[in-house]
Amino acid sequence: MNTIAHNFSLINSQIKQAEIACGRVSGSVQLLAVSKTKPASDIAAAYQCGQRHFGENYLQEALSKQQQLAAFNISWHFIGPIQSNKTRPIASHFHWVHSVDRLKIAQRLSEQRPLHLPPLNICLQVNISDEETKSGVNLAELPELIAEVRQLPNLCLRGVMAIPAPQTDYELQRLPYRKIYQVVSALNLPELDTFSFGMTGDLKAAITEGATIVRVGTALFGSRNYPA
User: pTM, whole model, 2 decimals?
Assistant: First the structure.
């Protein structure tokens, strides 16, 4: 068994164990393989294991890999910060966008989504830890942004994404996800069925607090070489 196949098996086992531990339905949590900075060959290896959803942060790198892997039935997720001048290719080449943090970006994605494609699945990024270095809407402003984005054509608002400040304590890991889940659930909007929560270090805490998508990169592909 190659390294990626071995890691893929381990990660899925961890997800299943976390589902069982908190009484979640088996298969209710989807693995999003974060493949930024990794070659197309690594994505192909994970694809051969059965992985279909891949997350990318860097637009030009992602577009290159999409060309190389055009024969593969991959669902591409954009999970990085979005600049206004990058919305058109993102709207045209991705199935999901997890990192919408303001109305202007949502409007541009809606206007620029090609009409021959289905509505673009999006999540609103919440800056739950109020970190200046991270994108995202403040939790108090989230309901208003949800109401505005729901009105846009060519988008399908699916839920929220968050990257809390790192914590090693399990209970502290759970808290920010719980806050977001409670706010979204209180809106009573069944279409908001997606909680893009958790990475390798806080996988169990995120699943316990409602994650439906967990974003895992290093634990699957190994350490990254970031672009200069």
Answer: 0.95
